[in-house]
Design a protein that fits this description.
Serine Threonine Protein Phosphatase 5, Tetratricopeptide repeat; elongated; 173 residues; mainly alpha; 9 helices; 2 domains
Length: 173
């Protein structure tokens, strides 16, 4: 996969449109949120494409369509959107609309983390805790990723790090 460019800045109009769509979504007005996500995605901006993908993935104001969601996530990832990589990783981790593939999920979570999505560190830690594909489980790698997520402010990573340290075999501590 070629390295996507950095995400271009959102202009004020698009930023306001996405903020308003999220506001509607947060208050349960999913149809209005969907309408605004569609309108914003006409710009082809990676962030707007990703959010429209989320609407299709989750069925926010529209019939759920994970195939279309994946296509939108891929377009957003091509534009460098970190959350699109995270969303693609989730699809592969769960096998939602794609063949379940933890190794592919791992690759996407790494790229999401590289692009500033702190939640991706927690997911990388969980994959290392369990092992994935040909990669064996690793307490040390799991803790490393949970520590990185904690440092970035991710509460789930912080909780998982505490759990791992509490469960650690005595000779590791």
């Amino acid at each position: 996969m070629p390295m996507p460019a950095a995400v271009p800045a959102l202009d004020e109009r698009l930023q306001a449109e996405l903020y308003l769509a999220q506001w509607h979504l947060d208050r349960g007005a999913v149809h209005e949120a969907y309408r605004l996500f569609v309108q914003a995605a006409q710009s082809r901006h990676p962030t707007a494409l990703n959010m429209l993908g989320r609407a299709y993935e989750q069925g926010w104001g529209v019939v759920r369509d994970v195939v279309l969601a994946r296509s939108l996530f891929e377009a957003a990832a091509d534009g460098g959107e970190g959350w699109a990589f995270y969303n693609l990783a989730d699809l592969y981790l769960l096998g939602d609309g794609v063949t379940r593939d933890k190794a592919q999920a791992y690759i996407y979570y790494v790229e999401a983390a590289r692009r500033g999505v702190s939640k991706a560190f927690n997911m990388l830690g969980l994959l290392h805790e369990e092992g994935y594909g040909a990669v064996a489980a690793s307490y040390d790698y799991a803790c490393h990723y949970f520590e990185a997520g904690s440092a970035c402010g991710d509460e789930a990573a912080r909780a998982n790090l505490a759990r791992m340290k509490q469960q650690a075999p005595r000779h590791i501590m």
